[in-house]
TrEMBL record:
Keywords, alphabetical: NAD, Oxidoreductase
Residue ranges of every copy of the Mannitol dehydrogenase N-terminal domain listed in the record: 29-273
Protein name listed in UniProt: Fructuronate reductase
SUPFAM superfamilies, alphabetized: 6-phosphogluconate dehydrogenase C-terminal domain-like (SSF48179), NAD(P)-binding Rossmann-fold domains (SSF51735)
InterPro entries, per the entry: 6-PGluconate_DH-like_C_sf (IPR008927), 6PGD_dom2 (IPR013328), Mannitol_DH (IPR000669), Mannitol_DH/Oxidoreductase (IPR050988), Mannitol_DH_C (IPR013118), Mannitol_DH_CS (IPR023027), Mannitol_DH_N (IPR013131), NAD(P)-bd_dom_sf (IPR036291)
Species of the source: Celeribacter halophilus
GO MF assignments: oxidoreductase activity, acting on the CH-OH group of donors, NAD or NADP as acceptor
Ranges for domain Mannitol dehydrogenase C-terminal: 282-469
Lineage: Bacteria, Pseudomonadati, Pseudomonadota, Alphaproteobacteria, Rhodobacterales
GO BP, sorted A to Z: mannitol metabolic process
Stored Gene3D superfamilies: N-(1-d-carboxylethyl)-l-norvaline Dehydrogenase, domain 2, NAD(P)-binding Rossmann-like Domain
């Protein structure tokens, strides 16, 4: 029997919910850069709820900056796909109709979409490393190949900063209003971060353009949260069972979904409240909470869990000692936060434990371990500095740092090698090449070679000693024994 591919809402038979609106009746008003699973589980699902509730021409033109495969698959399905939500109670399916068009690795088509008069918002999920922004200067990182390429080829930019700056320039020249730029990556102060990057890039093109962007383009900050593992054959089989159709774009996620957004949209916006988004004047405290508590604990458990032979986060949480270390980290990170009237941090930490323990979500520790150099500064080092300043115990943060350094060795305790998967992999390898297997030397070498450790941490002797001692013990005794004694 041939299985029908999901292409029309009318094809769907089964328990999956279908869009409560006619997708074809709504035009596109958003361009999204970074068409991965997270976008489809989060912003696209929220936009779907907004379209169902308030309507509007707010469908999404999704751009995959590098890969063609997701776009080919989406196009074959009229951009419809199934979103599964999993927990201990079971799996629920919902077909999302919010994506109107998909574009793959095509700078010309992307620029055209960005320059459409109807485009009023550009959202982004390109991961921490995807911007090509130098964290020290805040401007474009000229050593990033795509930045160098785009500055030399302003007619065909392919990176995020180049695309946004060139499109804004074209809109300005055509007398069109600028779009609002909404960063949805796990970075602190992500609106200002992207604004600095785009204006820095524009300054290389034309100082007048940079000034115009500063004065006219809104870059609201936002905090996003939804644990979204990579889709698997089980995802596709369950989507089939719930829709009666084969769906090569199905993705899965947890029931929890949070989006806190600075309410600064001069060109209007969808009614994302309908999907549960919270609009506030200042996102900073929410961002700190999410980056330090959820993401910080995630990074700690990813390195420690991966090196302890745990493939999934749920397996880490099922191990009494590892779970104890996760709880310790959640509490320590929460202690570095300023109070937030709407949130009880104890409850937040307990909910996170439950989310990490979700038995139905197969979230790989190795996936979270990726790109540590891009994640540790905001997740581990920033709270560590606050902990030092307030006299709080810094051991949980030093432990997380030592586990990342241990991970940087690229072999587990049995000697089995793995890819480090980090944009600074070459630098990490060069720093550790020919280093004796000694915690003090390894910690020193990484800190000298990589530009990511805050000076105040580098100069803090207690911190240095703690990190090096934990790392040394881990190398000598193995990760599992250290986990047992640490817990
Ligand atoms: C994770 C995040 O991969 C990672 O680094 O910590 O993707 C995390 O799952 C999300 O931020 C949850 O909202």
């Amino acid at each position: 029997m041939t299985v029908k591919r999901l292409t029309q809402i009318s094809d769907i038979s089964g328990a999956a919910r279908t869009p409560a609106y006619d997708p074809a009746a709504h035009g596109c008003g958003i361009v999204h850069l970074g068409l991965g699973a997270f976008h489809r589980a989060h912003q696209a699902a929220m936009t779907d709820a907004a379209l169902a509730s308030e309507g509007g021409d707010w469908r999404i033109t999704g751009v995959s900056l590098r890969s063609r495969s997701v776009v080919d698959a989406l196009e074959a399905q009229n951009c419809l796909y199934t979103l599964l939500e999993r927990d201990a109670q079971g799996v629920r399916g919902r077909v999302i109709g919010a994506i109107g068009k998909a574009i793959a690795a095509d700078p010309r088509a992307t620029l055209d979409a960005l320059c459409e008069p109807a485009t009023r918002i550009v959202t982004l999920t390109v991961t921490e490393k995807g911007y090509g922004i130098n964290r020290e200067t805040g401007g474009p990182d000229l050593s990033t190949p795509v930045i160098a390429h785009d500055l030399a080829h302003l007619d065909a930019p392919s990176g995020v900063l180049g695309l946004l700056a060139v499109a804004l320039s074209a809109r300005r020249n055509a007398g069109l209003s600028p779009f609002t730029v909404l960063c949805c990556d796990n970075l602190p102060d992500n609106g200002q971060f992207l604004k600095n990057g785009v204006t820095g890039f524009a300054r290389h093109m034309d100082v007048g353009l940079a000034d115009w962007i500063v004065a006219n383009v809104a870059f609201p900050s936002s905090m996003v949260d939804r644990i979204t593992p990579a889709a698997s054959d089980t995802t596709r089989a369950d989507a089939h069972a719930l829709t009666g159709c084969s769906d090569l774009c199905a993705i899965e996620t947890e029931p929890f979904c949070q989006w806190v957004i600075e309410d600064n949209f001069p060109q209007g916006r969808p009614a994302w409240e309908a999907g549960g988004a919270l609009f506030v004047d200042d996102v900073a405290k929410f961002e700190h909470m999410k980056l330090r508590v959820l993401n910080g604990a995630h990074s700690m458990l990813a390195y420690t869990g991966f090196l302890s032979g745990k493939q999934y986060v749920r397996e880490v949480m099922a191990d009494a000692n590892l779970a104890k270390l996760v709880r310790r980290h959640l509490r320590a990170a929460a202690k570095t936060l300023e109070p937030l009237s709407m949130i009880d941090y104890d409850i937040y930490a307990r909910e996170l434990e439950a989310r990490f323990s979700n038995p139905a979500i197969a979230h790989e520790t190795y996936q979270i371990a990726m790109d540590g150099t891009q994640k540790l500064p905001q997740r581990i080092f920033a709270p560590a500095l606050d902990a030092i300043a307030s006299g709080q115990d810094i051991r949980p943060f030093a432990f997380a740092t030592a586990m990342w350094m241990r991970y940087c060795l690229g072999v587990d305790d049995t000697g089995a090698p793995y890819e480090i998967r980090d944009p600074y992999e070459a630098e990490i390898k060069a720093a550790l090449d020919a280093q004796p297997r000694d915690g003090f030397q390894i910690s020193k070498a990484l800190q000298m070679r990589l530009d990511l450790f805050p000076t105040k941490l580098k100069e803090n002797t207690d911190w240095q000693k703690l990190v090096a001692e934990i790392l040394d013990e881990t190398i000598e005794k193995g990760v599992r024994r250290v986990v047992t004694s640490e817990a």
